[in-house]
Specification:
- The structure is a single chain.
- This protein has 11 helices and no strands.
- By secondary structure, it is mostly helical.
- The longest helix is centred in the last third of the chain and has 35 residues.
- The two termini are 46 Å apart.
- Its main location: membrane.
């Protein structure tokens, strides 16, 4: 008597996959709309709204230095107008008013740096790593210049009792510090130009540009990317570039995983 072999189930693997998907707790929640995931994966270009702030801050800085110089010359250096200035400034000396205004300008510089840092963090998360690194020093250098100016002003105020031997020496030094702080204006203008060029070009993320350049070897403008350490290259820069790229790719892979999970769940429930 021939023994019958048990029937083989060819769809065991598919049943196991179905069971594992049904038991997956991630599928119990509401499905994410494919349109939402597609828009998250393929984000439209978003302009940086920071160039106007840099231009406005530059104009305020130049106006502050010009008004401070006029006030110091009219009210302090030309002592004949001292009584008029005291009545106009509510009894305050012109250097005191200049220092107060300088502190307000420094606060605006710090607020601008925080505003720019927030938007550049978003640019970095969207994959524009080269632009983020190219403008990193430009957006922070004005704050450093004004902070160094504040330290110089404090030294002048502390040494003011020793400077009474030379007439108006402390005022001259104060105006000199304000003039040196104008070095931050070219940084702001250069930053504004780079942001406007970035908004006008509307580039794709760095990874997409690199893939396109690799896909078309005859490209007239190949990207010079550095994926490893070479002789003569800066190891810290290479590590930083790789860390930024890995962070962006991790975020991108997370969105892709959610998209795949959503499509698989919809297919299994149909």
């Amino acid at each position: 008597m021939d023994s019958k072999e048990p029937p083989t189930h060819t769809n065991n693997s598919s049943m196991e996959i179905t069971q594992s998907l049904d038991e997956d707790p991630l599928n119990d929640g509401p499905l994410i709309s494919p349109e939402i995931l597609d828009s998250a994966i393929k984000k439209e270009f978003q302009k940086l709204p920071t160039s106007w702030a840099a231009l406005l801050l530059s104009l305020l800085h130049v106006a502050f230095v010009c008004l401070s110089a006029a006030l110091a010359v009219y009210c302090t250096i030309l002592s004949s107008h001292r009584s008029q200035c005291l009545s106009l400034l509510q009894g305050l000396e012109s250097p005191t008013v200049i220092v107060f205004a300088k502190v307000c300008l420094w606060v605006l510089q710090v607020a601008f740096e925080r505003f720019v840092h927030r938007h550049h963090g978003r640019v970095r998360s969207r994959g524009y790593l080269r632009f983020y690194r190219a403008t990193r020093n430009l957006k922070t250098l004005p704050v450093y210049i004004h902070s160094a100016g504040n330290a110089a002003v404090l030294m002048i105020l502390a040494a003011e009792p020793l400077l009474h031997g030379v007439k108006n020496l402390s005022v001259g030094l104060l105006l000199g510090v304000l003039a040196l702080e104008l070095l931050s204006v070219p940084c702001l203008l250069l930053y504004s130009v780079r942001v406007q060029n970035f908004n006008r070009e509307r580039p794709e993320p760095d990874v997409s540009q690199e893939e396109r350049s690799h896909g078309y070897p005859g490209n007239a403008h190949p990207l010079c990317t550095e994926t490893g350490f070479r002789d003569g290259s800066n190891l810290e820069d290479v590590v930083e570039k790789q860390a930024d790229l890995i962070e962006y790719l991790q975020q991108h892979n997370t969105l892709l995983s959610k998209r795949i999970l959503s499509l698989t769940s919809q297919q299994m429930r149909e």
